[in-house]
Amino acid sequence: MAKTPVSSLLDAVRSQLVVDSDSDGALSPGRSSERCDPVRESELTHAHNPRNRRSIHISRKSNSSSEPFPEYEDSPPMDAADEAYKEAFTAVMQEDIRIHTVEPALEPLSEQPVKKQWVLDEMTKCLSNPQLTEDTRMRFIALTNMVIRLDSALFSGPIYDFLNPFATAEAQSIASCILDFASWTNSLLKELVDRADNVWNVLELILEEDIPEIVRYQRMVRLVSAHLQKTRRLEQHLLQLLLDLYDEWVHNDFLRLRNAQIVQEAPLDNNRLHLTRTLHAIWDVLSRAIENYDIYRASLNAIRDKFFTTPDDTAGSSSFISLRCFQD
Questions:
Q1: Which of 109, 297, 312, 325 would bridge with 228, disulfide CB 3.0–4.6 Å?
Q2: Along the 328 residues of the chain, how does pLDDT read in single tens digits?
Q3: How many domains does the chain have?
Q4: How far is CA 140 from CA 58, 265, 272, in A?
Q5: Region of 189 on the Ramachandran plot (φ > 0 left; ψ -120 to 50 alpha; else beta)
Q6: Does 190 reside within a domain?
Q7: Which of 183, 178, 189 is nearest to 154 (CA)?
Q8: Does some domain include residue 117?
């Protein structure tokens, strides 16, 4: 069977597909997922009351007129002056978001130790990024406030009164909200990892079919665009910052104080044990979520390199089929 030129394949396929919007990231619920994000801005003020915890569904939006292969769009490259203007404009937008949106929404704080202040400043900077969707920004502002409130509930009193019944109950309520989000995120990312493995297996079957090349590429691209979601470095960076914030503000100090307390505790307090397990679980699940994000990113790269890279790439060209789920 005669091979169809790569350029013809691209021209034929690109006109038939619409893939995901650039605003969608790996943490946006996919078309096949009906999970709901457990974090709401309402939790920012009602984290202590489990009956006030609500969930929202972040819908995926696609633009039917968007170009599925963006580097083929007829737009002139920006010169140095345009790049400088874009960077300056982005910096102004980021500062405006920080001053008028992020900082007013964060819990008011007194002066903090250097390490705690540094990681909070990094989170504030990331939350002010204009590329963040408003849903993601408000979700992580709420999570940041929960970490700050958890720090206050655990460590604001004297050491001899550490984990008194009232503080333990308040900390457990807040920690449960954070764990809900961490578990939801990790479950979503694990599902994406499994989905990428399934897509890989089906792509290999399509490669073995005795069908025209153009039909083969159409099926492959439809499969990928229907079942895979793009990754975003900013999104992954936010997860890492959340773990760093939790580590510096809560987990490290809790381990130090609790380890010293538990050896003298007799009998062991069940509520304190439950809180200890919850706080450990938050660290563990967030760490696994970040690891699954790395695995999913690697899976997308492997799929792109094996199934959507033309022979021209070996000569230094960049003519792979550029679905947006491969964009970062």
A1: 325
A2: 444 444 444 444 333 333 333 345 777 644 444 445 665 434 434 433 433 333 323 233 334 343 333 333 345 666 777 777 777 878 889 999 999 999 999 998 888 999 999 999 999 999 999 999 999 999 999 999 999 999 999 999 999 999 999 999 999 999 999 999 999 999 999 999 999 999 999 999 999 999 998 999 899 999 999 999 888 889 999 999 999 999 999 999 999 999 999 988 889 999 999 999 999 999 999 999 999 999 999 999 999 989 987 655 443 333 334 455 555 5
A3: 1
A4: 14, 36, 27
A5: alpha
A6: yes
A7: 178
A8: yes
Structural contact between residues 241 and 122, judged by C-beta atoms closer than 8 angstroms: yes
The answer to whether 60 and 26 are in contact (CB under 8 A) is no
The answer to whether position 66 is within a domain reads no
Number of residues that this document lists for the chain: 328
- Residue 27's nearest CA partner among 39, 13, 9 is 39
**Domain annotation covers residue 293:** yes
CATH code of the domain covering residue 177 = 1.20.58
* Structural domain that includes position 145: 106-326
State the chain's maximal CA–CA distance in angstroms.
Answer: 81
The Cα-based distances of 293 to 34, 51, 163, 240, 267 in angstroms read 20, 31, 34, 11, 41
